[in-house]
Protein backbone atom coordinates (compact mmCIF):
# COMPACT_ATOMS: atom_id res chain seq x y z
CA UNK A 1 0.00 0.00 0.00
CA UNK A 2 1.37 3.43 -0.92
CA UNK A 3 1.58 6.21 1.65
CA UNK A 4 -1.18 8.10 -0.20
CA UNK A 5 -3.51 5.08 -0.12
CA UNK A 6 -2.82 4.62 3.59
CA UNK A 7 -3.66 8.26 4.34
CA UNK A 8 -6.80 8.02 2.21
CA UNK A 9 -7.99 4.88 4.01
CA UNK A 10 -7.26 6.39 7.38
CA UNK A 11 -9.20 9.49 6.34
CA UNK A 12 -12.15 7.42 5.10
CA UNK A 13 -12.17 5.53 8.38
CA UNK A 14 -12.14 8.79 10.33
CA UNK A 15 -14.88 10.17 8.12
CA UNK A 16 -17.03 7.09 8.70
CA UNK A 17 -16.49 7.32 12.42
CA UNK A 18 -17.49 10.96 12.43
CA UNK A 19 -20.63 10.35 10.38
CA UNK A 20 -21.47 7.42 12.65
CA UNK A 21 -21.16 9.69 15.70
CA UNK A 22 -23.36 12.30 14.06
CA UNK A 23 -25.98 9.68 13.19
CA UNK A 24 -25.85 8.23 16.70
CA UNK A 25 -26.43 11.70 18.18
CA UNK A 26 -29.42 12.16 15.88
CA UNK A 27 -30.78 8.74 16.86
CA UNK A 28 -30.54 9.65 20.53
CA UNK A 29 -32.55 12.78 19.83
CA UNK A 30 -35.03 10.75 17.83
CA UNK A 31 -35.45 8.35 20.76
CA UNK A 32 -36.26 11.30 23.02
CA UNK A 33 -38.68 12.74 20.43
CA UNK A 34 -36.42 15.77 20.34
CA UNK A 35 -35.03 15.55 16.81
CA UNK A 36 -35.37 18.80 14.93
CA UNK A 37 -36.33 18.85 11.29
CA UNK A 38 -36.82 21.56 8.75
CA UNK A 39 -40.42 21.58 7.66
CA UNK A 40 -42.27 23.31 4.89
CA UNK A 41 -45.79 24.08 5.96
CA UNK A 42 -48.54 22.51 3.89
CA UNK A 43 -50.31 25.25 1.95
CA UNK A 44 -53.53 24.41 3.73
CA UNK A 45 -52.04 24.75 7.21
CA UNK A 46 -53.27 27.42 9.55
CA UNK A 47 -50.19 28.93 11.10
CA UNK A 48 -50.29 29.65 14.82
CA UNK A 49 -46.55 29.89 15.23
CA UNK A 50 -45.55 32.85 13.09
CA UNK A 51 -43.83 35.77 14.79
CA UNK A 52 -45.35 38.04 12.15
CA UNK A 53 -47.74 39.20 14.88
CA UNK A 54 -49.13 42.21 13.01
CA UNK A 55 -49.19 40.51 9.58
CA UNK A 56 -46.99 43.36 8.47
CA UNK A 57 -45.19 41.12 6.00
CA UNK A 58 -48.38 40.89 3.94
CA UNK A 59 -49.53 44.45 4.55
CA UNK A 60 -49.86 46.59 1.45
CA UNK A 61 -49.02 49.76 3.40
CA UNK A 62 -45.72 48.22 4.45
CA UNK A 63 -44.95 46.92 0.98
CA UNK A 64 -45.69 50.31 -0.62
CA UNK A 65 -43.41 52.18 1.77
CA UNK A 66 -40.66 49.63 1.36
CA UNK A 67 -40.85 49.74 -2.45
CA UNK A 68 -40.98 53.55 -2.43
CA UNK A 69 -37.78 53.66 -0.38
CA UNK A 70 -36.13 51.28 -2.83
CA UNK A 71 -37.40 53.14 -5.90
CA UNK A 72 -36.35 56.55 -4.59
CA UNK A 73 -32.70 55.66 -4.82
CA UNK A 74 -30.67 56.40 -7.96
CA UNK A 75 -30.15 53.41 -10.30
CA UNK A 76 -26.49 53.10 -9.30
CA UNK A 77 -27.25 53.13 -5.57
CA UNK A 78 -25.55 50.05 -4.07
CA UNK A 79 -27.97 47.45 -2.79
CA UNK A 80 -25.27 45.58 -0.91
CA UNK A 81 -23.41 47.06 2.04
CA UNK A 82 -20.09 45.87 0.69
CA UNK A 83 -18.47 44.98 4.00
CA UNK A 84 -18.43 45.20 7.75
CA UNK A 85 -19.79 48.36 9.39
CA UNK A 86 -16.19 49.08 10.36
CA UNK A 87 -14.96 48.95 6.78
CA UNK A 88 -17.08 50.22 3.91
CA UNK A 89 -20.34 48.62 5.14
CA UNK A 90 -21.41 51.75 6.99
CA UNK A 91 -23.64 54.35 5.34
CA UNK A 92 -25.47 57.56 6.09
CA UNK A 93 -28.62 55.54 5.61
CA UNK A 94 -27.65 53.09 8.41
CA UNK A 95 -26.79 55.94 10.77
CA UNK A 96 -30.00 57.84 9.98
CA UNK A 97 -31.95 54.66 10.67
CA UNK A 98 -30.21 54.23 14.02
CA UNK A 99 -31.04 57.83 14.95
CA UNK A 100 -34.65 57.37 13.88
CA UNK A 101 -35.05 54.17 15.91
CA UNK A 102 -33.26 55.65 18.95
CA UNK A 103 -35.59 58.67 18.91
CA UNK A 104 -38.67 56.44 18.56
CA UNK A 105 -37.58 54.40 21.57
CA UNK A 106 -36.50 57.46 23.59
CA UNK A 107 -32.98 56.08 23.85
CA UNK A 108 -29.72 58.05 23.71
CA UNK A 109 -28.33 55.95 20.84
CA UNK A 110 -28.93 52.77 18.86
CA UNK A 111 -26.59 50.32 17.17
CA UNK A 112 -27.73 48.04 14.36
CA UNK A 113 -26.82 44.35 14.34
CA UNK A 114 -27.60 41.78 11.66
CA UNK A 115 -29.97 39.85 13.93
CA UNK A 116 -31.22 39.62 17.49
CA UNK A 117 -28.96 36.63 17.92
CA UNK A 118 -25.93 38.70 16.91
CA UNK A 119 -27.01 41.60 19.13
CA UNK A 120 -27.25 39.41 22.24
CA UNK A 121 -24.08 37.51 21.50
CA UNK A 122 -22.17 40.71 20.71
CA UNK A 123 -23.38 42.74 23.69
CA UNK A 124 -23.32 40.02 26.33
CA UNK A 125 -19.99 38.59 25.30
CA UNK A 126 -18.27 41.97 25.46
CA UNK A 127 -19.93 44.31 27.96
CA UNK A 128 -19.75 42.45 31.30
CA UNK A 129 -16.22 43.03 32.53
CA UNK A 130 -13.96 40.38 34.08
CA UNK A 131 -15.46 39.23 37.37
CA UNK A 132 -18.82 40.97 36.89
CA UNK A 133 -21.92 39.11 38.02
CA UNK A 134 -24.72 38.11 35.65
CA UNK A 135 -28.13 37.17 37.04
CA UNK A 136 -30.46 35.81 34.39
CA UNK A 137 -34.05 34.67 34.19
CA UNK A 138 -34.22 30.90 33.77
CA UNK A 139 -36.15 31.26 30.49
CA UNK A 140 -33.84 33.72 28.79
CA UNK A 141 -33.27 33.12 25.07
CA UNK A 142 -30.51 30.85 23.72
CA UNK A 143 -28.68 33.82 22.17
CA UNK A 144 -28.28 35.41 25.61
CA UNK A 145 -26.83 32.13 26.90
CA UNK A 146 -24.43 32.11 23.99
CA UNK A 147 -23.33 35.68 24.79
CA UNK A 148 -22.88 34.83 28.48
CA UNK A 149 -20.89 31.72 27.59
CA UNK A 150 -18.43 33.85 25.63
CA UNK A 151 -18.22 36.64 28.21
CA UNK A 152 -15.46 37.31 30.71
CA UNK A 153 -17.98 37.73 33.53
CA UNK A 154 -17.52 35.93 36.83
CA UNK A 155 -20.55 34.23 38.41
CA UNK A 156 -23.58 33.69 36.19
CA UNK A 157 -26.58 32.78 38.32
CA UNK A 158 -30.07 31.90 37.24
CA UNK A 159 -33.19 33.09 39.06
CA UNK A 160 -36.71 31.65 38.93
CA UNK A 161 -38.66 32.74 35.89
CA UNK A 162 -40.24 36.19 36.20
CA UNK A 163 -39.88 36.05 39.98
CA UNK A 164 -38.82 39.21 41.87
CA UNK A 165 -38.48 37.03 44.98
CA UNK A 166 -36.26 34.65 43.02
CA UNK A 167 -34.10 37.57 41.89
CA UNK A 168 -33.94 38.89 45.44
CA UNK A 169 -32.77 35.55 46.83
CA UNK A 170 -30.04 35.12 44.25
CA UNK A 171 -28.89 38.71 44.67
CA UNK A 172 -28.84 38.40 48.45
CA UNK A 173 -26.70 35.26 48.25
CA UNK A 174 -24.33 37.05 45.85
CA UNK A 175 -24.08 39.97 48.28
CA UNK A 176 -23.29 37.56 51.12
CA UNK A 177 -20.58 35.89 49.02
CA UNK A 178 -18.91 38.96 47.59
CA UNK A 179 -18.64 42.24 49.59
CA UNK A 180 -17.77 44.12 46.38
CA UNK A 181 -21.37 43.63 45.21
CA UNK A 182 -22.81 45.40 48.28
CA UNK A 183 -20.09 48.07 48.20
CA UNK A 184 -21.01 48.88 44.63
CA UNK A 185 -17.61 48.09 43.14
CA UNK A 186 -18.77 44.93 41.32
CA UNK A 187 -21.19 45.30 38.41
CA UNK A 188 -24.29 43.12 38.45
CA UNK A 189 -26.21 42.55 35.20
CA UNK A 190 -29.84 41.48 35.35
CA UNK A 191 -30.94 39.77 32.12
CA UNK A 192 -34.61 39.55 31.30
CA UNK A 193 -36.97 39.53 28.34
CA UNK A 194 -40.00 41.78 28.38
CA UNK A 195 -42.20 39.06 26.81
CA UNK A 196 -40.96 35.51 26.94
CA UNK A 197 -40.87 33.66 23.68
CA UNK A 198 -42.10 30.31 25.00
CA UNK A 199 -44.39 31.14 27.92
CA UNK A 200 -45.58 34.48 26.59
CA UNK A 201 -45.70 36.19 29.96
CA UNK A 202 -44.77 39.82 30.49
CA UNK A 203 -41.89 40.35 32.92
CA UNK A 204 -42.60 42.21 36.18
CA UNK A 205 -39.99 44.83 35.31
CA UNK A 206 -41.02 47.43 37.91
CA UNK A 207 -40.85 44.82 40.67
CA UNK A 208 -37.38 43.79 39.49
CA UNK A 209 -36.31 47.44 39.60
CA UNK A 210 -37.58 47.71 43.19
CA UNK A 211 -35.45 44.68 44.20
CA UNK A 212 -32.35 46.13 42.59
CA UNK A 213 -32.93 49.58 44.12
CA UNK A 214 -33.28 48.02 47.55
CA UNK A 215 -30.28 45.68 47.39
CA UNK A 216 -27.90 47.64 45.18
CA UNK A 217 -28.30 51.25 46.33
CA UNK A 218 -24.91 52.25 44.88
CA UNK A 219 -26.26 51.89 41.35
CA UNK A 220 -24.15 48.90 40.27
CA UNK A 221 -27.20 46.95 39.02
CA UNK A 222 -27.55 47.07 35.22
CA UNK A 223 -30.69 45.90 33.47
CA UNK A 224 -30.43 44.20 30.09
CA UNK A 225 -33.85 43.63 28.55
CA UNK A 226 -34.59 41.81 25.33
CA UNK A 227 -37.80 43.17 23.78
CA UNK A 228 -37.80 40.81 20.77
CA UNK A 229 -41.41 39.72 21.18
CA UNK A 230 -42.71 43.08 22.39
CA UNK A 231 -41.41 45.17 19.49
CA UNK A 232 -44.32 46.48 17.46
CA UNK A 233 -46.83 44.70 19.68
CA UNK A 234 -46.73 46.29 23.13
CA UNK A 235 -46.41 49.83 24.37
CA UNK A 236 -47.12 53.20 22.77
CA UNK A 237 -47.22 52.63 19.00
CA UNK A 238 -45.49 49.29 19.55
CA UNK A 239 -42.43 50.79 21.25
CA UNK A 240 -42.25 47.94 23.76
CA UNK A 241 -43.05 47.08 27.35
CA UNK A 242 -40.28 49.21 28.81
CA UNK A 243 -41.75 52.38 27.31
CA UNK A 244 -45.24 51.31 28.28
CA UNK A 245 -43.99 51.28 31.88
CA UNK A 246 -41.97 54.48 31.39
CA UNK A 247 -38.79 52.86 32.75
CA UNK A 248 -36.56 53.34 29.72
CA UNK A 249 -34.10 55.42 31.73
CA UNK A 250 -33.58 52.49 34.11
CA UNK A 251 -32.50 50.04 31.40
CA UNK A 252 -28.81 49.90 30.63
CA UNK A 253 -29.45 48.01 27.40
CA UNK A 254 -32.60 47.28 25.44
CA UNK A 255 -32.60 44.95 22.45
CA UNK A 256 -35.31 45.32 19.79
CA UNK A 257 -35.41 42.79 16.99
CA UNK A 258 -36.96 43.27 13.56
CA UNK A 259 -37.54 39.72 12.38
CA UNK A 260 -40.76 39.26 14.30
CA UNK A 261 -43.59 41.82 14.27
CA UNK A 262 -41.58 44.21 12.09
CA UNK A 263 -41.47 41.80 9.15
CA UNK A 264 -37.83 42.43 8.45
CA UNK A 265 -34.46 41.34 9.78
CA UNK A 266 -31.83 42.66 12.16
CA UNK A 267 -31.90 44.17 15.63
CA UNK A 268 -30.82 47.26 17.50
CA UNK A 269 -29.12 47.65 20.82
CA UNK A 270 -30.38 50.79 22.56
CA UNK A 271 -27.83 52.20 24.97
CA UNK A 272 -25.75 55.21 25.96
CA UNK A 273 -23.11 56.66 23.62
CA UNK A 274 -20.12 55.19 25.50
CA UNK A 275 -21.66 51.72 25.41
CA UNK A 276 -22.36 52.09 21.69
CA UNK A 277 -18.79 53.11 21.07
CA UNK A 278 -17.55 50.18 23.17
CA UNK A 279 -19.68 47.75 21.14
CA UNK A 280 -18.28 49.14 17.89
CA UNK A 281 -14.84 48.31 19.24
CA UNK A 282 -15.45 44.98 20.97
CA UNK A 283 -18.64 43.26 19.76
CA UNK A 284 -17.24 40.62 17.44
CA UNK A 285 -20.64 39.79 15.95
CA UNK A 286 -20.77 43.37 14.69
CA UNK A 287 -17.14 43.73 13.65
CA UNK A 288 -16.56 40.49 11.78
CA UNK A 289 -19.63 40.31 9.58
CA UNK A 290 -20.98 42.01 6.49
CA UNK A 291 -23.41 44.76 7.43
CA UNK A 292 -27.06 44.59 6.33
CA UNK A 293 -27.58 45.83 2.79
CA UNK A 294 -29.90 48.64 1.74
CA UNK A 295 -33.05 46.49 1.20
CA UNK A 296 -32.94 45.51 4.87
CA UNK A 297 -32.32 49.06 6.01
CA UNK A 298 -35.26 50.16 3.86
CA UNK A 299 -37.57 47.49 5.24
CA UNK A 300 -36.67 48.34 8.86
CA UNK A 301 -37.17 52.02 8.03
CA UNK A 302 -40.55 51.30 6.42
CA UNK A 303 -41.69 49.38 9.50
CA UNK A 304 -40.57 52.11 11.90
CA UNK A 305 -42.21 54.83 9.79
CA UNK A 306 -45.46 52.90 10.09
CA UNK A 307 -45.02 52.52 13.85
CA UNK A 308 -44.14 56.13 14.48
CA UNK A 309 -46.98 57.46 12.31
CA UNK A 310 -49.44 55.38 14.35
CA UNK A 311 -50.49 53.34 11.31
CA UNK A 312 -49.82 50.04 13.06
CA UNK A 313 -52.09 50.86 15.99
CA UNK A 314 -55.05 49.35 14.15
CA UNK A 315 -53.00 46.18 13.68
CA UNK A 316 -52.11 46.19 17.38
CA UNK A 317 -55.83 46.41 18.22
CA UNK A 318 -56.66 43.67 15.69
CA UNK A 319 -54.02 41.45 17.30
CA UNK A 320 -55.63 41.97 20.70
CA UNK A 321 -58.99 40.90 19.21
CA UNK A 322 -57.36 37.75 17.83
CA UNK A 323 -55.74 37.03 21.18
CA UNK A 324 -59.12 37.28 22.91
CA UNK A 325 -60.72 35.12 20.22
CA UNK A 326 -58.08 32.38 20.41
CA UNK A 327 -58.16 32.48 24.19
CA UNK A 328 -61.93 32.03 24.21
CA UNK A 329 -61.73 29.12 21.79
CA UNK A 330 -58.98 27.47 23.81
CA UNK A 331 -61.01 27.92 26.96
CA UNK A 332 -63.93 26.23 25.17
CA UNK A 333 -61.75 23.25 24.23
CA UNK A 334 -60.39 23.11 27.73
CA UNK A 335 -63.88 22.74 29.15
CA UNK A 336 -64.58 20.07 26.59
CA UNK A 337 -61.51 17.96 27.43
CA UNK A 338 -59.79 19.39 30.45
CA UNK A 339 -57.50 16.36 30.82
CA UNK A 340 -55.76 17.23 27.59
CA UNK A 341 -54.16 20.55 28.33
CA UNK A 342 -54.12 23.64 30.45
CA UNK A 343 -54.03 27.10 29.03
CA UNK A 344 -51.47 29.34 30.61
CA UNK A 345 -51.92 32.81 29.27
CA UNK A 346 -50.88 36.27 30.29
CA UNK A 347 -53.69 38.65 29.30
CA UNK A 348 -52.87 40.60 26.13
CA UNK A 349 -49.84 38.45 25.26
CA UNK A 350 -49.78 37.14 21.69
CA UNK A 351 -48.07 33.96 22.87
CA UNK A 352 -50.17 31.34 24.57
CA UNK A 353 -48.64 28.47 26.49
CA UNK A 354 -50.36 25.12 26.83
CA UNK A 355 -49.28 22.47 29.26
CA UNK A 356 -49.76 18.74 29.90
CA UNK A 357 -49.03 16.18 27.24
CA UNK A 358 -51.94 14.71 25.42
CA UNK A 359 -51.21 11.86 23.08
CA UNK A 360 -54.31 11.99 21.03
CA UNK A 361 -56.92 14.35 19.87
CA UNK A 362 -60.13 14.18 17.98
CA UNK A 363 -63.68 15.39 18.30
CA UNK A 364 -66.17 17.67 16.71
CA UNK A 365 -64.36 20.82 17.71
CA UNK A 366 -61.35 19.65 15.71
CA UNK A 367 -61.87 20.19 12.04
CA UNK A 368 -59.20 17.76 10.89
CA UNK A 369 -57.40 20.69 9.41
CA UNK A 370 -53.63 20.74 9.59
CA UNK A 371 -52.49 23.23 12.15
CA UNK A 372 -49.01 24.58 12.60
CA UNK A 373 -48.77 25.82 16.12
CA UNK A 374 -45.41 25.26 17.74
CA UNK A 375 -45.58 28.27 19.99
CA UNK A 376 -49.25 29.09 19.89
CA UNK A 377 -49.16 32.64 18.69
CA UNK A 378 -52.36 34.47 18.16
CA UNK A 379 -51.03 36.25 15.12
CA UNK A 380 -52.74 36.23 11.78
CA UNK A 381 -51.19 33.50 9.73
CA UNK A 382 -48.76 34.60 7.08
CA UNK A 383 -51.26 34.14 4.30
CA UNK A 384 -53.54 36.62 6.00
CA UNK A 385 -56.37 34.21 6.76
CA UNK A 386 -56.65 35.24 10.36
CA UNK A 387 -56.33 33.05 13.36
CA UNK A 388 -57.61 29.51 12.89
CA UNK A 389 -60.59 28.75 15.01
CA UNK A 390 -60.22 24.99 15.18
CA UNK A 391 -57.40 24.13 17.50
CA UNK A 392 -55.83 20.74 17.92
CA UNK A 393 -54.78 19.82 21.41
CA UNK A 394 -51.24 19.14 22.32
CA UNK A 395 -48.72 18.86 25.07
CA UNK A 396 -46.45 20.82 26.93
CA UNK A 397 -44.32 23.51 27.92
CA UNK A 398 -40.74 24.57 27.57
CA UNK A 399 -40.11 23.40 24.13
CA UNK A 400 -41.57 19.99 23.72
CA UNK A 401 -45.13 20.42 22.62
CA UNK A 402 -46.44 18.25 19.88
CA UNK A 403 -49.45 18.93 17.82
CA UNK A 404 -51.54 16.25 16.25
CA UNK A 405 -53.86 16.28 13.35
CA UNK A 406 -57.08 14.30 13.35
CA UNK A 407 -55.19 11.12 12.40
CA UNK A 408 -52.99 11.52 15.44
CA UNK A 409 -49.94 12.20 13.34
CA UNK A 410 -47.61 14.85 14.61
CA UNK A 411 -47.90 17.95 12.49
CA UNK A 412 -45.67 20.25 14.45
CA UNK A 413 -43.34 20.38 17.35
CA UNK A 414 -42.58 23.33 19.47
CA UNK A 415 -39.47 25.43 19.28
CA UNK A 416 -36.75 24.45 21.66
C1 LIG B 1 -36.11 36.68 23.01
C2 LIG B 1 -35.38 36.56 21.71
N1 LIG B 1 -34.23 37.23 21.56
C3 LIG B 1 -33.52 37.14 20.42
C4 LIG B 1 -33.96 36.36 19.37
C5 LIG B 1 -33.14 36.28 18.13
O1 LIG B 1 -33.59 37.23 17.23
P1 LIG B 1 -33.31 37.06 15.67
O2 LIG B 1 -34.32 36.09 15.16
O3 LIG B 1 -33.43 38.42 15.11
O4 LIG B 1 -31.91 36.51 15.55
C6 LIG B 1 -35.15 35.67 19.48
C7 LIG B 1 -35.64 34.84 18.35
O5 LIG B 1 -36.35 33.92 18.46
C8 LIG B 1 -35.88 35.76 20.70
O6 LIG B 1 -37.04 35.09 20.85
What does this structure look like?
- The chain starts with a helix and ends with a strand.
- By secondary structure, it is of the alpha/beta class.
- It contains 13 helices and 13 strands.
- Strand 3, helix 5 and strand 4 (156-159) form a beta-alpha-beta unit.
- The longest helix is centred in the N-terminal third of the chain and has 29 residues, at 3-31.
- It is globular, with a radius of gyration of 23 Å.
- 44% of the residues are buried.
- Helix 2 crosses helix 12, helix 3 packs parallel to helix 12 and helix 4 packs parallel to helix 5.
- The protein has helices at residues 3-31, 60-71, 92-104, 116-126, 142-150, 164-177, 179-183, 205-215, 241-245, 273-282, 284-287, 294-308, 313-336, and strands spanning 46-47, 109-113, 133-137, 156-159, 188-193, 221-226, 251-257, 267-271, 342-344, 353-355, 371-372, 402-404, 410-413.
- It has a 7-stranded mixed sheet with strand order 2-8-7-6-5-3-4.
- Mean pLDDT is 84; it is low at 357-376 and 379-416.
- The protein binds pyridoxal-5'-phosphate.
- Residues 115-117, 120, 141, 143, 193, 197, 226, 228-229, 257, 259, 267 line the site of pyridoxal-5'-phosphate.
Amino acid sequence: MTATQGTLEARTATHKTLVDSLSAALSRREAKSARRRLTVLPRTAVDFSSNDFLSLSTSSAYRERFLALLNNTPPSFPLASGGSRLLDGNSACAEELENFVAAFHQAPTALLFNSGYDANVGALSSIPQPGDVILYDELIHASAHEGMRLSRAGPRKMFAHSSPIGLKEVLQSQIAEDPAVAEGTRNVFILIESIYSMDGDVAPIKEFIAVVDELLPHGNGYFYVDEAHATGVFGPRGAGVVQELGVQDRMFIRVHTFGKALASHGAMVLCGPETRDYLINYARSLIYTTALGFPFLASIRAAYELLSSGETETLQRRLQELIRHLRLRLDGLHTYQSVMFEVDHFPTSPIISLSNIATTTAGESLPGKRIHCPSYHAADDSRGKGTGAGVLACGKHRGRNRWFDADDSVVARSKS
